[in-house]
């Protein structure tokens, strides 16, 4: 396969051309055996999250997601940057789930913020609305796909996503779509499952990527982002440090897609 063919395979969004997610590699002498799985389709992911939406609040409490996200959010200096933006900066949370990431950010901000969020699961949007309003937020939520965000270019001061990109056959394509709606100077913040014992369980169950720090940083560099940083995310219970938070700043217009 040529370099051009590989790029086409990565960017294509058709089921027949999905990039398989690597699960395991083993070398035996001169042989190298690789095991890969095709990711769940958007429709299948939506159905799964619709089915588990009623239990997701319990999952969020078990792993204390809001508290886990706050530490890397503080280290990223997103809150400090938002104080310099002006009145009521705009935040977009992609794959918002039950709103844990937005609630975590809200807990460390001093200024008022205009929260927006999308999710492919309508039932998860209901969960997010309930949880976020209980936390004092008044978000604008809608059902949508991170690969095709229903917003104009350069619409938001911060765009973020927790455990979304690793579900996709083309995570860099989704990352570039997130950057499209981010203002120059704005910050992007993403959490992704990392290689670990618990991360391996998540990978087997959900057919996700397991993203190393080097790989995540390389993705952000490929998107021409600056001030890149990362930090392990510490969850409670058996999850441990199953994820890594990455952040970066947009300084230029993204390359044409």
TrEMBL record:
<protein>
    <submittedName>
        <fullName>Demethylmenaquinone methyltransferase / 2-methoxy-6-polyprenyl-1,4-benzoquinol methylase</fullName>
    </submittedName>
</protein>
<feature type="domain" description="Methyltransferase type 11">
    <location>
        <begin position="92"/>
        <end position="189"/>
    </location>
</feature>
<keyword id="KW-0489">Methyltransferase</keyword>
<dbReference type="Pfam" id="PF08241">
    <property type="entry name" value="Methyltransf_11"/>
</dbReference>
<keyword id="KW-0808">Transferase</keyword>
<dbReference type="GO" id="GO:0032259">
    <property type="term" value="P:methylation"/>
</dbReference>
<dbReference type="InterPro" id="IPR013216">
    <property type="entry name" value="Methyltransf_11"/>
</dbReference>
<dbReference type="GO" id="GO:0008757">
    <property type="term" value="F:S-adenosylmethionine-dependent methyltransferase activity"/>
</dbReference>
<dbReference type="InterPro" id="IPR029063">
    <property type="entry name" value="SAM-dependent_MTases_sf"/>
</dbReference>
């Amino acid at each position: 396969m040529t370099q051009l063919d590989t790029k086409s395979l990565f960017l294509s969004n058709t089921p027949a051309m999905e990039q398989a997610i690597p699960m395991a590699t083993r070398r035996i002498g001169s042989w190298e055996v690789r095991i890969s799985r095709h990711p769940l389709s958007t429709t299948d992911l939506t159905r799964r999250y619709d089915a588990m939406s009623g239990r997701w609040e319990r999952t969020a409490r078990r792993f204390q997601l809001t508290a886990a996200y706050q530490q890397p959010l503080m280290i990223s200096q997103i809150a400090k940057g938002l104080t310099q933006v002006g009145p009521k900066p705009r935040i977009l949370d992609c794959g918002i789930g039950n709103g844990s990431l937005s609630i975590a950010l809200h807990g460390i901000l001093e200024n008022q913020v205009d929260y927006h969020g999308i999710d492919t699961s309508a039932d998860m949007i209901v969960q997010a609305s309930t949880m976020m309003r209980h936390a004092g937020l008044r978000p604008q939520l809608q059902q949508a796909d991170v690969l095709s965000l229903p917003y104009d270019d350069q619409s938001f001061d911060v765009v973020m996503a927790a455990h979304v990109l690793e579900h996709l056959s083309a995570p860099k394509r989704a990352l570039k779509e997130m950057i499209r709606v981010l203002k120059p100077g704005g910050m992007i913040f993403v959490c992704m499952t990392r290689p670990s014992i618990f991360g391996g369980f998540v990978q087997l169950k959900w057919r996700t990527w397991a993203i190393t720090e080097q790989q995540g940083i390389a993705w952000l560099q490929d998107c021409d982002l600056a001030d890149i940083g990362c930090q392990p995310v510490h969850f409670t219970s058996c999850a441990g440090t199953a994820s890594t938070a990455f952040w970066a700043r947009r300084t230029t217009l993204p390359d044409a897609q």
